[in-house]
Design brief:
This protein is α/β, with parallel strands linked by helices. It has two domains: 171 residues, 3-Layer(aba) Sandwich (Isopropylmalate Dehydrogenase), CATH 3.40.718.10; 202 residues, Isopropylmalate Dehydrogenase. Helices cover 44% and strands 16% of the residues. It has 14 helices and twelve strands. The strands form two sheets. A ten-stranded mixed beta sheet has the order 2-1-3-12-11-4-5-10-8-9, with helices on both faces. The protein has a two-stranded antiparallel ribbon with strand order 6-7. The mean pLDDT is 95. The structure holds 3-isopropylmalic acid (IPM) and magnesium ion. 3-isopropylmalic acid (IPM) binds next to α6.
Length: 388
C-alpha cells in the first residue's frame, strides 16, 4: 500500500463521517409523527417498480380504491400513479431514484410501492444503489415493520427492523483501499437507535405484548451493535411491564425453528442487516416471502411494499399476469391501518385469510394453470363484499 492510497482512503472516510454526522444532526431536529388519520386530504402514491411490480401493485391499488371508495368519491383520498421507477430509467440517469420520480414521491405522504430490480455484480446494469434502500434514506423511513403470523403454530411476531443505519447506511460507499483491501462500514447513532426502540416498545405496550427481544451480535461487533443493545435496553427501562431479552442473531436464527421456544418471541427490535435476513426466514413459516408485506415508516412519510423481488424470470417467460398479489395486499392492510382505517384493514386481512388459507376458491401458481393476478383481486373484492 502506498502513502497516496492511505490518504485517498482517509479522504473518503472523512467524507463518510461528515455525511453521517449531518444525518444524525438532522434526526435530532425532527418533530413528531404526522398524524395521517387527521389529514384533510391524503394522496396515496402508487409506484409500480419493475418486473411483476406494476401488475401486483395495480391490483393492490384496485382493492384499496374499492375499500376506500367513499373517501375517494368525497375527495378526501386521491390515488396518484407514479411511473418511472424502472431499472431502465434508473440506469439512464445513473441514479437509484431519478430526480423527477423522487419529486413526485415527496408529494405523497403514503406510498404503495412494487418491487424494484436491484443490480448486483455480474448483472448487465451498472452497480447503482437499490431503489428500496435509496427511498428509505431519502424519505427517512427509519422503521421497517414486518409482521409474521401462523396462528395454528402459536407464531405471532412483529419485527422492528432499523431501516436507515447499520450496514446499509453507507452500504454503497465502502472503500477499495487497494486491489487487495476492501472495507465497508457500519453506522449506529444514538437518535437513530432510540427512535426505533421507542417505536417497538410503544407498539408492544399498545398491543399488550409483554416481551421485546433485542437482536444483535454485540459480542463481536462491539462498538455499533454494543451501542444499539445498550440504548435499546435503556429505552426498555421506561416500559417496566415489558420483559426485555437480548439475543445474538446467530442463535436467534436457530431459535426460530425451535418449536417449543419460538412461541415466546413477540416483538423484535434489530439492526438493519439482521432484520433483513431474519424477516425472510420468519416469512417462510407463514408460506414464504410472497405472503408477507412490509411497512417502511418515518415521521413524514410511509411506504408499503412486498418483501420479495421483481421476478424478472416470470416476465421473461411471459407469465407476468399470473403473478401473486398477496404480499402487496398484505402491505395494503398495513397501509390502511397506518392511515387510521383500522376497520377496513381488519376486513381486508380477514378476506385475505379466507382467500389464501380457508376457502381457497382460486389458486395462484404463477403459471397458466392457475388464476391470474386480476382474477385473484376480483376474488378478494367479492369476498370483501360478502363480509359483514
Ligand atoms: C428487503 C430487500 C432489500 C433489502 C433489497 C432489495 C435491497 O431484501 O426489503 O428486505 O435488503 O432491504
Ligand atoms: Mg430482504
Amino acid at each position: 500500500m502506498t502513502e497516496i492510497q492511505i490518504q485517498e482512503a482517509l479522504a473518503k472516510f472523512e467524507a463518510l463521517i461528515r455525511e453521517q454526522d449531518a444525518r444524525s444532526e438532522e434526526i435530532k431536529k425532527q418533530g413528531d409523527f404526522v398524524d395521517f388519520a387527521n389529514l384533510e386530504k391524503l394522496t396515496i402514491g402508487v409506484c409500480g417498480g419493475d418486473g411483476i411490480g406494476p401488475i401486483i401493485t395495480n391490483e393492490a391499488a384496485r382493492v384499496l380504491a374499492f375499500l376506500l371508495k367513499d373517501d375517494v368519491d368525497a375527495g378526501k383520498i386521491e390515488f396518484r400513479t407514479i411511473d418511472g421507477l424502472t431499472i431502465e430509467n434508473r440506469v439512464a440517469v445513473n441514479k437509484a431514484i431519478p430526480d423527477d420520480v423522487l419529486e413526485e414521491l415527496k408529494k405523497c405522504p403514503v406510498i404503495l410501492k412494487g418491487p424494484t430490480t436491484t443490480p448486483q455484480a455480474g448483472d448487465p446494469w451498472p452497480n447503482i444503489e437499490s431503489a428500496n434502500v435509496a427511498m428509505r434514506k431519502a424519505l427517512d423511513l427509519f422503521c421497517n415493520l414486518r409482521p409474521v403470523k401462523v396462528p395454528e403454530e402459536g407464531i405471532d411476531w412483529t419485527f422492528f427492523r432499523e431501516n436507515t443505519e447499520g450496514a446499509y447506511a453507507v452500504g454503497s460507499k465502502g472503500i477499495n483501499v487497494t486491489d487487495d483491501l476492501a472495507m465497508d462500514f457500519v453506522v449506529t447513532t444514538t437518535e437513530g437507535t432510540q427512535r426505533i426502540a421507542r417505536l417497538a416498545y410503544d407498539y408492544a405496550r399498545r398491543n399488550g405484548k409483554n416481551r421485546v427481544s433485542i437482536i444483535q451480535k454485540a459480542n463481536v461487533i462491539k462498538t455499533t451493535d454494543g451501542k444499539f443493545l445498550n440504548l435499546c435496553k435503556e429505552v426498555g427501562k421506561e416500559y417496566p411491564e415489558i420483559t426485555t431479552d437480548e439475543w445474538y442473531i446467530d442463535i436467534t436464527t436457530a431459535k426460530l425453528i425451535d418449536k417449543k421456544r419460538r412461541t415466546d418471541f413477540k416483538v423484535f427490535v434489530l439492526p438493519n442487516l439482521y432484520g433483513d435476513i431474519i424477516t425472510d426466514e420468519a416469512a417462510e413459516f407463514q408460506g414464504g416471502v410472497g405472503t408477507a408485506g412490509s411497512a417502511n415508516i418515518g415521521k413524514k412519510y410511509a411506504m408499503f411494499e412486498a418483501i420479495h423481488g421483481s421476478a424478472p424470470r416470470m416476465m421473461r417467460e411471459g407469465r407476468g399476469q399470473y403473478a401473486d398479489p398477496c404480499s402487496m395486499l398484505r402491505a395494503a392492510v398495513m397501509l390502511l391501518s397506518h392511515i387510521g382505517k383500522q376497520a377496513e384493514a381488519d376486513k381486508l386481512e380477514r378476506a385475505l385469510d379466507i382467500c389464501m388459507y380457508e376457502e381457497k376458491k382460486l389458486h395462484i401458481t404463477g403459471r397458466a394453470d392457475g388464476a391470474t393476478c386480476e382474477e385473484f383481486g376480483n376474488y378478494v373484492m367479492e369476498t370483501l363484499s360478502n363480509l359483514k
